Amino acid sequence: MRIPVRFIAGRALFYAFTAWAAITINFFLPRMLKGDPVSAYMQKQAGQITPEAENALRILFGLDEDKSLWQQYVEYWRLLLSGDLGLSFSHGLAPVGEVISSALPWTVGLVGIATIISFVLGTSLGAVIGWRRGSKLDALIPVTTFFGTVPYFWLGLIAIALFSSTLHWFPASHAYDKGSVPEFSLDFIGQVIHHGALPAITIVVASLGGWILGMRNMMLTVLDEDYITVAQAKGMPNKRVLRHYAARNAVLPQIQSFALSLGFIVGGTIVMEMVFSYPGVGKLLLDATTAKDYPLMQGLFLIITMAVLVANILADVAYAVLDPRTRQAEA
Q1: pTM score, whole prediction
Q2: Cα–Cα distance between 152 and 146 in angstroms, integer?
Q3: Is the pLDDT reported for residue 312 higher than 70?
Q4: Element spanning 19, H or E
């Protein structure tokens, strides 16, 4: 298998331009908002900071009024390439990178695992339902689709009311028990799993219908292709036709959608983290927006954008590897 150089070069050029555009928008967006982070920070301090200290803060955050917008833009790129995302006002002027890195594992661990489970389970069920169209398994489609249309806010509250408040099976909030200190031990890992089970289940239930319906519809399309008819006419076992012919081709759009969904894992599910008070990136972004912590907001938007961009790259590579027609068309 050989991927054409023209395909790789074209994609690399496109994503390089997209990355530049995203970073540039991330630079100008906070400057287009009313006020600036230093002014917001000064208001919170209620005149406790001298004008000299305010000017020092503006220089520190790349908002020096003596520099032109172009000079600030160049300085932003310099700091970005050195890995400096600035300081967070709402976290005691802690580096933005450290604040994000403390919340990122919680989101990636919870939403990532839930997304993978939902994809694998939904795609597998969709393939079987599509293969056995007209059977009793079709009843799963309206049920799972219904849960997918329920607002996640209500679904989370219902899950808390039923499984936490009534049955007392799972905790209602947070990522671990109050008073516990994060550490690598079996007891703490058990707490994390116990606290993360309920939000993970709600994510799976909410997204399962989309994966099932998408795979089932693609299976119905693929089953009408000539190569499926030929494979069955040759007397191949149904399981082999299902796995190696029908499902293998029907899963291509699913894989692309899955790769894209991986990019949004970094952004987390803001509503889910808000409902369950989960200390992930989504809740961190909500708190940063409420506190008008522009450096933290800027860093979060950048991380989320780059994650989605990388996911798009992986989706293109996966599609090119699995579908030769894509490589030929691009070449």
Answers
A1: 0.77
A2: 12
A3: yes
A4: helix 5-32
